[in-house]
């Protein structure tokens, strides 16, 4: 990848800088490298001493950053999590520590790939990245769902690719959509209205099974999600008002896992925010694929699956062996 600073500053390109053939060769050589190195320290890895794994992975990512030019022009931070991990208060602490280190006001590029988590820490992650940067960008190699989408809303630019997805930000209670509880009660009420004889049965059922405090809480936390989104979108140049976009992202989708691809994201948030197939996206894609190669190499040498929790700077990458294989 060329280090032309004018191209890095421009940040929008019509085609990926790295050709498909070059990427395929790079990935194969990375996998072979990790496979060879991990076999050398197999005893330590089997004892869950993954120090060498972390060091080798960090070094390879550092090389990618140096090659791309972003390692010098930006403060690059990482929030890459498998589904075993949530965005939580400790995630916020790690990101806050990372953005405070070094020069304040430098452009921040966050490589973001997460299934989501708690909306409070996600809101603070986004605001502190904006506070400590001149330009705050997120680049999403695959997915930034739920609370991770909320983080992206605070960015000046969101860099996406053909298989990148955002998602609705409707809150969850016990892994179920919070708003679905209220909709379920409305559905039961409609049945009772249609069949009056069933009303007593439903009333007894609800009195035994439904916590009215939870019912009220679901509406309040949904409203909070709209408010957080509205604050993060602020005075950005948007196709519609920040409030209406926040409302749409909370209540406009029936499924919490609904895929918001780059085309729909551009319709919702506009061309000023959504950038496609840029240098930033190519960087995130290379790093994501490299981490997947590490996990594959670990499986080949140990026959164990590993998850990643990479939050903060280059020294904050952790691979953890999964108990269920």
Automatic annotation (TrEMBL):
Q: Which GO terms describe its cellular component?
A: membrane
Q: Tell me what this protein is called.
A: Peptidase S49 domain-containing protein
Coiled-coil stretches: none
**Superkingdom of origin organism:** Bacteria
